[in-house]
Structure formats: C-alpha cells, structure tokens
Amino acid sequence: MAFTLSAESEKIVDELLKRYPTKRAVCLPLLHLCQRQNGWVSRDVIDYVAARLELPTSEVQGVVTFYTMYHQHPVAPNVVWVCRTLSCELRGAREVQRHLEQRFGCKAGQTSRDGKFTLKTAECLAACGQAPMVQINDAYHENLTLAALDRILDELAAKTAAPASDAQRASHH
Amino acid sequence: MPDFAKVISSRYGIPESHTLRVAEQHGAYAEARRAFTSLAPEQITAEVKDASIRGRGGAGFPAGVKWGFLPKGNTKPVYLVINADEGEPGTFKDRTLMELDPHRLIEGCMITMRAIGAHVCYIYVRCELVLSIDRLNAAIEEAKKRGYIGNAPFGVSHPISIYVHTGAGAYICGEETSLLNSLEGLRGEPRLKPPFPAVSGAFGSPTIVNNVETIASVPDIVRMGGKAWAGQSRLPNDGGTRLYGVSGHVKKPGVYEAPVGLTLRELIYDLGGGMLHDSRPLKAVIPGGSSTPVLRPDVMVSAPDPKHPLHPWNGKSTIDVPMGVDTYRALGTMLGTCCAIVMDSSVNMVEVARNLMHFYAHESCGQCTPCREGTGWLHDVLNNLCEGRGKPEDTALLVDIANNMMGNTICAFADGTAMPMLGLIQQFRDEFIAAGKGGVQPRSLGETARPLVGGRA
Predict the structure, then answer these.
(1) pLDDT tens per residue across span B232-266
(2) Which chain B positions have a beta carbon within 8 Å of A70's beta carbon?
(3) Prior bond to A132 cis, omega within 30?
(4) Sequence-distant (≥ 6) Cβ neighbours of residue A113 within 8 angstroms
(5) Cβ(B341)–Cβ(B267) below 8 Å
(6) Which of A161, B208, B387, B390 minimizes the number of CB atoms within 10 Å of its CB?
(7) B331 within domain boundaries
(8) Selected residues 113-142 of chain A with any CB under 8 Å from a CB in chain B
C-alpha cells in the first residue's frame, strides 16, 4: 500500500520547503518524519519521498543507505542503542551489551524474544563523561548501572503492548 | 581545585538557564543588541580577529581569518552553518551548550550573521541529540516571538532566520563539506577543496561553517573586546577560555571551562578529580578526541634548542605541556576538540586500537579507496591480534596500511584514522609485538570496567 504522511506532518513539510533554496534539502528531515510515522523506511516511504521532492528514487535510496539512523528493516516499538566507543568501553559498555543480549535473548542488530525491543550498538553518542550509557528511543540514559538499566527496561516493557502477531515482529538482520 | 572564571559556561547551573527569561536576566542578547544597533559589521569581525579564537571543532583554524575568506563584491546570499554534529569519540562539550544555554549559541549566530552579512543560518545537529534539538528549537521560537529573530532585529533592517537541521547518524558529516552535502539532502560524502566553503559552500553560495563553541564565544568576545577576551588565555595566538572534557578512568569525568593552555595534568588531577582507582596509575591519554595521537606521561619533552617552541618544557612530562593548538602540534599530536580520554594501567593498548579502528571502519564514507579499504583492514588485523590469531609481522602491516592512507584521500578522515593508529604503535610498540606472539587477554577493556557496573564487584 502506498505510503502517505498525515495531514499534520504534511503541514510541517510545507514549512520545511520554505527553509531551503532547493526541494532536495528537505530529504533528510522528511525521511525522519516518515520514519516517525511508519516506524522504518520502507520501499513505499522511499517512493513517497522521491515523488514529494521530485527526486529519482535511486537518490533517495542512496541517502537512506548512507545514514545509520534510518531503519531499513522493521524494528520493535523500542530501540535500544548501546554506545560501544572507547570512553564507554572503558567504563563498562561491553558489560552493558552482554547484559542486554542476555536479557533480550538476542544479539545486537536483532529484536528481543518478546518483540518489544530492538538492540543496536551505536558509535560515540557524545556522552563520554557520563559513561556507560544507552539511548532508548529519544532519551539518553547515562551513568548506568545494570540495576538502573533493568529498572528502566522493566518500566518500558510494562508500557509496551506485545506486538500483535509474528508478522509484526521485527526481522532479524 | 583551582577556581577558573566561568565565561562561556557562566549560565550553567542556573535553574531554567535554557529559557529566554532566565538567560536574559543573566545577560543574553545584550551583545546582539549592541552588535546590531551600534557596531559596524567590520568592527565585529575585527574583534573576533583580535580574540585569536582558534576553531573549537578540532582543526583549530582562527575563526576571524576564516570569516575574512568570504569573496569581496559577492552578490549571492551568504550562509552561516553551525557544525553541531558532535561525534568525535571522547567529545561531549557542544552538547552542554545546546542543552544548558541554547540562547548563547543563538546570540552568537545573530552577531556572526550581522558580521558576515548572512540572512539565513542552519544549525546542523546530529539527530541523536534530541534534547539539544528540542532546546534549540524552543530557544529559536522564543527569540522569534521576542522579535530578535525576524525581519528587523532590534529595529535594524537585517532580516535573519535560524533553522535547526538534523543529521541522520554519520560521523563524517562533522567534516564541513560532507556536512554541506548532507544539508543539501545528499549522501554525506566530502567534497574536494578548493573551492572552499567560504567561496562556494551551501547551495553553491559563500558559506561560513563554524563549530558550536566557536560561535557561542562570540557574544563574550564582543562584550569584553577581542584583546581582553584573548588575554584570558595562558598562550599567545590562541585566545580565551574553552570547554575541556575529560572521560575514562578519572573520578570526576565531565566538561569544565578553563583558560586555553591548561595542562593535561591539571585537567586529569585537578578538574577531573584524579585517577579513578588509586592503585592504577595513569598510563596514557588521548588528548583531544580519538583522532589525536596518544600521549604517555612517562615520556619527557626533548627540546634542548632554545628556539624550539617546546623548549620551556624541556625535560618535563608531555602532560605538563600547555594544551594549545600550536604547542600540541609541536608535540606531535593535536589539540583536536580538547576532550581527553584517560586510561589507567589496566588498559591494553591493542584493545584500545581495536575499539577505535572499529569506529573508523564503521564511519568511513567509502568514497576514497585508501580509506574505505584501509580502515577495514586495520580493524581486521587488530581483531586478529586481540583474538590470538595475530602474527609477529602484523605490527609492521598495521604501520604499512596506515602509511598508505595518509594524504591519499579527499578529506582528513583517513589521516585522522592513520595518525592515532601510528601514534599507538609508536608509543606502545611492545604491546603490539606481544599481541602478535600470543594475543592479548580477551576483553581486557571490559574487565577493567566490571567492578564499576551494577554493583557486581
């Protein structure tokens, strides 16, 4: 089914188009808007963005594959990013990652058994002084202990409805 | 602990410092008002030149000089682009400005736009920094409502618009031409220079790209006067105070403001509260983000020639040399972003190299072959060394790969990978050789952290 943005988001797009001398410049922000609505950047999203900005589909695809924050596959309702770069590793990032892999029953890049969390590793998230840290959806959680991390995840799991069917489960990739 | 004057961070710690009401109570926009109503654009640029402010994003280029590269008699629009794509491993200072004092950055943008004749400014923020983005957008809205941002700031006919543009997760977009491509909606691949952005940057127009901290310093430069602002520094030709970051094995990691020319010893032992474990002494420091070659405290400066720029520190430890753009270049490393990663005696440097080269292999944009292939090969060889599959000749192989990356690519990413790689081998060759014979203890970095996490010790 073809993708369309909500009327509310379309208004934001009209506003964004006024900010730049070219339509193409709206490509990254528009992809963010679409992903927020759709959960990931599907082929239909790419077609929509290409049509809306009058760009070749291949160029939008090129942009999507260049940047790590565009999900090219479906993800769970919650995405957990573990910062693995040096300052965090010095302060326990590997331990955090091992713990999460155990808790979720999956490896980084995959989705938890209950379908509620996708686990990913991140490169430096500019929180080196507050290591170790994870980003969950939009929020940074810093100066973590495993106990604190578990509390955050318990709370989030309770708030997240289990995915309706296996079809909605994120693919392992 | 020394008590340094707070200038750029003067509003940190004040409740609600990110709101216009509180920021304005503490001086915000007074200098923008003055810049628009009673200073000529050339006067502003002159003050910034006098301030000798070296770019705070890592390259250390004097900001006032950069502004002077705008072409004369230009008829195209001029853009100001703020590089807020903070992502150099170890670096977390710009975030504090955007989160705690977004109005200081907005005010700096306004004054700079007045100076360079720009009417549109884009603040390119990495999309992971959600709080920074929210705070900046809210600050822009407040400043618009107050009439500061708009058609006639402070009654002066110089229309200005400031927009936040979010990235999408790519370290390379911190490179200024890659950032411009990303701003234009393209893959973030760096452009060949020349033309430099000041001549042909965003949308083919003259563009000044500056770091967050650089532009957030402008209001204080205008307030104090360039010379007085520069005079806060302990070093010549490298003015002011700046934000220092310290992370890793210290008791009090964080961001601290201090004069330019602080030493690593002061940063680690005074501001950073000293080494995390009293039983584990300092082994090595990456002084200014992961691309800057590592320093070790047991290496002494050798500069017996009185004309050598480091002669005053001849015979002293490298961590006693003041942190400045020029002093650090003389030392064979770089000041970079001035955010240090501190490592204690438990750390194996081959593991450090593996961690960092994983980063560079992941983040290379892939445009130039020496970088795309080189970063991957460095990481593969280091993986072998760390997992016990290494060979005695691997150390020489790493050096060879790194040397073939240097200077052979469009942007500085490959050099920024090869330099720290070569630095690690130069300073800790014996550890690489040993790893080639028997492998390092697996996960030796993770083990160092275990007692800290989750009370499992």
Answers:
(1) 999 999 999 999 999 999 999 999 999 999 999 99
(2) 168-169
(3) yes
(4) A104, A105, A106
(5) no
(6) A161
(7) yes
(8) 122-132, 135, 138-140
Helix (H) or strand (E) holding B8: none
CA nearest B186 in A: which residue?
Answer: A63
* Domain end residue (candidates: B229, B262, B296): B229
Which residues from chain A sit within 8 angstroms of residue B343, using beta carbons?
Answer: 90
Q: Which domain holds residue B415?
A: 349-447
For residue B103, being part of any structural domain is answered with: yes
Q: Which of A63, A90, A149 sits opposite B249 (nearest CB)?
A: A90
Do residues B200 and B325 both lie within one domain? no
Q: Nearest CB to A69: which of B169, B185, B455?
A: B169
Is the domain of B310 the same as that of B426? Answer: no
Candidate from B128, B253, B455 with C-beta closest to A125:
B128
A41 touches chain B (CB under 8 A): no
User: Tell me, what's the pLDDT at A1?
Assistant: 64
C-alpha to C-alpha distance for B356 and B318, rounded to whole angstroms: 22
Q: Within a 10 A sphere around the Cβ of B406, how many other Cβ atoms? A: 16
ipTM of the complex: 0.94
Residue B8 lies in a domain: no
pLDDT digits (tens, 9 = 90+) for A65-95: 999 999 999 999 999 999 999 999 999 999 9
Same domain, B129 and B264: no
- Domain presence at residue B2: no
**φ, ψ for residue B383, nearest 5 deg:** -60, -45
Residues 64-103 of B with CB under 8 A from A: 77, 86-92, 94-95
Same structural domain for residues B254 and B322? yes
Residue window 86-115, chain A: list those with CB within 8 Å of chain B. 86-87, 89-96, 99
- Alpha-carbon Rg of chain A, whole angstroms? 18
Architecture of domain A7-66: Orthogonal Bundle (1.10)
State how many domains chain B has: 3
* Cα–Cα distance measured from residue B262 to residue B322, given in angstroms and rounded to the nearest whole number: 5
